[in-house]
Design a protein that fits this description.
Length: about 170
């Protein structure tokens, strides 16, 4: 049905699905595979909660979420996908990740993938999806491992979205 409407990309593992609908790493991996079977490009959303961040589990959480997909679909499946790092603790909470905090996780994700396949790690787009706004977008998108944004609430306000776009 999505293809009939001209969709090319589909979100899988979005934090709201994981939080409110009980999506698990396994069900996200299955949806990732289903999207690719239907010739849709999955945008794999991964990220940690505030409790996980405060417990210094960020890297372990994103690795576990990546591994669920890699173990089911294989590392090569990431060559036809996009990753969006969503720090759940920074979405709609008033807290925001600093440019350096976001870069640190993006870099870790890229290095984690590179350990399995350097060419995929070099080419994959890793987006930031943690409440990008006009006042923080320029700094975030200047980071070397942040390839763009998965814009949520700010995309609903044309002026905010245009300011984010123009900041790049």
């Amino acid at each position: 049905m999505l293809k009939e409407f001209g969709c090319q990309y589909v979100l899988v593992g979005h934090s709201e699905r994981r939080t409110y609908y009980g999506d698990t790493d396994q069900s996200v991996a299955e949806r990732f595979c289903q999207a690719q079977t239907q010739q849709l490009i999955p945008i794999l959303c991964i990220g940690e909660t505030l409790e996980q961040r405060e417990a210094d589990q960020t890297f372990a959480v994103v690795e576990q979420q990546l591994d669920a997909v890699i173990n089911l679909a294989g590392i090569n499946a990431l060559s036809a996908a996009v990753i969006a790092y969503e720090p759940v603790w920074a979405i709609g909470t008033g807290k925001t990740a600093t440019d350096q905090q976001a870069q640190e996780v993006h870099q870790h994700i890229r290095q984690y993938i590179a350990a399995k396949d350097a060419s995929i790690a070099e080419k994959i787009q890793i987006l930031y999806g943690g409440s990008a706004k006009p006042d923080n977008a320029k700094g975030l998108f200047a980071m070397p491992d942040i390839d763009g944004g998965l814009i949520g609430g700010a995309s609903l306000d044309a002026d905010s979205f245009l300011k984010i776009y123009n900041s790049i």
